[in-house]
């Protein structure tokens, strides 16, 4: 690998980190304006883009436990952003659909960001925009795949898992 390639890749990595941080902060600020947490607003985004999701599907997409998904749905429902209903074919499934309140609240909150992106894309050709969109889709897929994979077992994780818990230590001390 050439040093020019290494320098370009390093510059890209740095820019990607800066972009990621700015994006997280942006979404946290939008969520805060709507009285939501960052996980709530991104979960609502999944629900809005799909049109409807089951609670189980939302759990898979977010990596949240069943109990956490239930609490999240409760918060979104209290705010009037989602409607919860039972699946007609399987009453155990909870179907989540976005409400008009969600669309009327979320869409305006992101209007400035959409305009900013439109302005940023102005100097690019259609082919360049397609290239950027392809990169972003592939990047999102890679991140989702990473989140679905089991955690890497590091030496520190193994040491922590072998360390006795406070309860186990107390039992040993009592003997």
> Helix count?
8
The secondary structure category is mainly alpha
Q: Portion of residues in helices?
A: over 70%
If you consult CATH, what is the topology? Answer: Arc Repressor Mutant, subunit A
Low-confidence stretches: 163-175
Determine and state the CATH class: Mainly Alpha
Strand content: 5-15%
**Computed CA radius of gyration, to the nearest angstrom:** 22 Å
CATH architecture annotation name: Orthogonal Bundle
Oligomer: single chain
The overall average pLDDT, rounded, is 87
Give a short account of the largest sheet: 3 strands, antiparallel
Tell me the name of the CATH homologous superfamily.
Answer: Winged helix-like DNA-binding domain superfamily/Winged helix DNA-binding domain
Separation of the first and last Cα atoms? 61 Å
Count of strand segments: 3
The tally of structural domains comes to: 1
- C-alpha geometry: globular
Topology as a string of helices (H) and strands (E): HHEHHEEHHHH
Pfam family, one: MarR
Region (Disordered): 146-175
Biased composition (Low complexity): 163-175
Protein name: MarR family winged helix-turn-helix transcriptional regulator
